[in-house]
Specification:
Phosphorylase Kinase, domain 1, 3 domains, 14% strand, 5-stranded parallel beta sheet, Rossmann fold, 15 strands, 6-stranded antiparallel beta sheet, Aminoglycoside 3'-phosphotransferase, Chain: A, domain 2, alpha/beta
Length: 521
Amino acid sequence: MNQSIVLKAMRRPGFYPEAPQKVEVCETHISTLFFTDHFVYKVKKPVDFGFLDYTTLAARRFFCEQELRLNRRLAVDVYLQVLPIRRQGNRISLTGEGEVVEYTLKMRRLPERRMLNNLLQEEDIDRETIRRIALHLIGFHSRAETTFEISDYGSIRRILKNTEENFRQTRPFIGKTIEEEAFERIRRYSFAFLEDNRPLLEKRIAEKKIRDCHGDLRPEHICVEEPIVIFDCVEFNRRFRYSDVAADLAFLAMDLDFFNQPDLSRHLVHNYVRYTLDLDLLRLIRFYKCYRAYVRGKVESFKGNDRALSPQETEQAWTTARKYFTLADRYTGARPYLAVTCGLTGTGKSTLAARIAQDLDLPLFRSDILRKELAGIPLATHLDAPIDKGIYTPEMNRRTYRTLLSKAEEKLREGKPVLLDAAFLKKEERKGAEELAKKMNAYFFVIETRCPEKTACNRLQQRRKEGSDPSDGRMAVYTAQKTHFEAVTGLPPESHIVVSTADRGDPCFRVETEILLAVEA
C-alpha cells in the first residue's frame, strides 16, 4: 500500500482517539512525525540509505520496536507503545479491525521551550543544568550493555574504517562545504591521532568503556525536565551506537561548542570526569569532538544535496555544514603547554611533578638537578652552605632558571608540552615562564603545592635521612623561602592550580584533570 494514503489520513484530527484540536506535521529524511495536543506519532519512511533500510513493513515494525526499547533507557515515560495502523475498506485507523498497513511509534509530547537547543539559543541554561545532564549520562553509560561484540566497535580497525568512510564520502564536497586545506588537515590529524594512541584505545576496550550508547547526543534530543529526558537515540544502525562513552559525551560537548558555549562544554566534561575519575576520557575528547563535528558536517552536506529542498533550505544546510567543518578543523589545532611548579621546599613539588610527568608523558626538567650539573657537582653531594651562598647565589639562581626556560623552549618549539620542577618563588621567575609560554603560543600553568609546616619538616628530615634525592632542602631553607615567597597573582583561575599535598585524595589526579580539561576540552 502506498504510504502517502496513511500519512494523509494521519493529518486529520479525527484519526486519533484523543481527538486533538489540531495536528502538526514535521518531516525528516527518514520519518514523518505528527504532533497532537499531548502526543507524537512517528512513522518511518520506506527508504534505503545504505546505513538504514526501512523499505519493508516488517523492517519498519522492527525498528519501531527497537526505538521503543532503546529509548526507554533514557526516556522511560516518553516512549509509550508501537501501534499498528489498519485499513478496513477505505478507512485508515488506529483502532478497530482490518489489515495492518503501517506501524507508528507513540510518544508523549515534550515541551518545545524546554529543549536544550532552544534554551541555548535563548541563553537560558546554567551550569547546574549541565551538571545534571552529566550525572544523567554517567548513570546511563554505567548501565549500558557491553559485550565482546560491542567492544569490537572500539577497536582501531573499526574506528579507522569509520574515519576513512567519512573522508571518502565528503571528498565530493571539497570546495562546496569544506576547503581542501581543512579537509587534508583534519584527515592528517585524525589518522595521526589513531596511530599514536593505539595503546590507549586498546586500554579503553579492556576497561569496558565501549558500550551500547545513545549515538546522537544533540541538544535538540535533550529536554530539561525533572528528571532530564534524553531521547531519539540511533536505533537503525548499531555501528553508530556502539562506541566509547567518550565519543558519546563528545557529541554533546561538541554541539555546546557549536552553540558558542565552550564554558558549558568544559563544565559538562569536567563533571563527567570528576564523578567517574575517567582521566583517559580527557585524552580522547578532542579527537572525538573533531570526529563528531566532521560527521555533522557530512550529514548537513548530504542534506544540502537533496533536490527536494528549496534553494533557501539548501543554502541553510550548506551553511550549517561549513560551520561544523570549521569547528572540526579548529579541534586539530593542538597547542602545547608549559607547566611550572611553585612552592616551598618540602611541600611535595618534586614528588608531584615526577608523577604528573609520568602520567601525562611530559619532558621534565628539575632545578635541583640542573643547578648541580651547571656547577659540576655530583647529584648525590649535599651542600649545607648558607642561604644565598655557594651554588645558591642570586646569579646562580638566575642562571639555573634561564637554563630551565631554555630547555622548555626547545620542547615547545617541537610542539611538545613540558613541565619545570622548581620553587618559582618570585614573581620575576614566574613572569619569565609566562612570557615564554605567550611567545610560543602555549598554555601556561602554575602548580602551587602547599602543606602544613610540620608535614614539610617531617618530609625534609626523611629525605635527608635517605640521602638519595639531589635536593639540598632543609628547614633553614624552608624558613628562608617562607620569608621571601611572593604570592601568585595575576593569573586566570584555570592557570593557577593550588593543591594540598597533605590532604586525603590524589592531588595528581586533580592537577592532571585541570590541565587536560583546559588543553583538550
